[in-house]
Design a protein that fits this description.
The structure is a single chain. By secondary structure, the protein is mostly helical. It is about 75% helix and about 0% strand. It has helices at about 5-20, 30-50, 55-65, 80-95, 105-125, 125-130. α1 (about 5-20) packs antiparallel against α2 (about 30-50), α3 packs antiparallel against α5 and α5 crosses α6 (about 125-130). The two termini are about 35 Å apart.
């Protein structure tokens, strides 16, 4: 078990101090850079909170679409990211070859890509989805 505060809580605290105490005291020409840092801290906190759940869900969906397992290992075998990259490469090949241009597969690929993008936007800019959902 990790000590308190958690990594997510530390990032939230750092972002709050930056936003509430430091940014207002900065010269105007430095505020944009500080706001970008605050945004990066928010993204990192959301990624830390989500763990690898999104990547695992994406890999599972790709395995279903492609009807092929992409095994992951923690030792010398492929990592989750390696397996996900391989699965996405295969999907890209299918798309380039026109295999996903028609019918139910096209609809499934579109739904998968929409889901992946929504998860990425939820991690990087959740306010956008709140305004557009």
């Amino acid at each position: 078990m990790r000590d308190q505060p958690t990594g997510e809580e530390l990032l939230d605290t750092a972002r709050a101090v930056l936003r509430d105490d430091l940014i207002p005291a900065l010269p105007a020409d430095k505020r944009h850079a500080a706001l970008m840092i605050a945004n990066a801290l928010s993204i990192a906190a959301r990624q830390l909170k989500a763990g690898d759940a999104g990547e695992r869900a994406e890999l599972a969906a790709l395995e279903g679409l492609l009807s092929e397992p992409f095994a992951t290992h923690t030792d010398d075998g492929p990592s989750l990211r390696d397996a996900l990259a391989a699965a996405n490469r295969k999907l890209s090949q299918w798309i380039r070859a026109g295999r996903a241009d028609h019918g139910a597969l096209r609809d499934s690929v579109r739904a998968h890509l929409d889901d992946v993008i929504r998860r990425k936007v939820a991690e990087s800019n959740p306010k956008y989805l709140g305004a557009k959902a």
